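W.,

You were right to be curious about this one. When I first looked at the sequence I had no strong expectations either way, so I just let the prediction run and decided to look at it fresh. Below is the sequence, 163 residues in total, followed by the output.
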Amino acid sequence: MIIFISINPAFMTKYIKKSELENNWYEIDANGVVVGRLATIISKIIRGKNKTTYTPHMDNGDFVVVKNIEQIKFTGQKFQNKKYFRHTGYPGGIKETTPEKLHQNKPGEALKLAVKRMLPSGPLGKKQLTKLKIYKGSDHPHSAQNPKVIDVSKLNSKNIARI
């Protein structure tokens, strides 16, 4: 017995084409914002999960400009006690640092590491991470793109550190 199954085109998943991609720009003020909560918001925007046209295998995310990165906060004692590890590739070459030391040398690196670890590993994740722009102070060179401002404190009251 042969059974024919017809597929209704209305129920098929439609993937966006590369020519149909549209990238928007968003601006976030990191003044007093908790690092992990900000990283989740940024990673969703960079991956494109905030769009109805989300396609997992394509880079259809938006650009994010983060300003005032020097005023970002950690909750609890993480600023002094959390450890970041990296390896040089040589035997016994493990290096560790804290967010406090990292913040003194490179203020935006803690946020960049948090976002990087939320993105897929491989070429797609590396390409998506280039859409994150981090700046000290309130000035940035991307004002010509007219970025939409996202007020992170209004999304959830826990996004702002109460220290």
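Here's what jumped out at me. The longest helix spans residues 35-47. And, maybe more interesting for your project: The mean pLDDT is 91.

Coffee later to discuss?

I.
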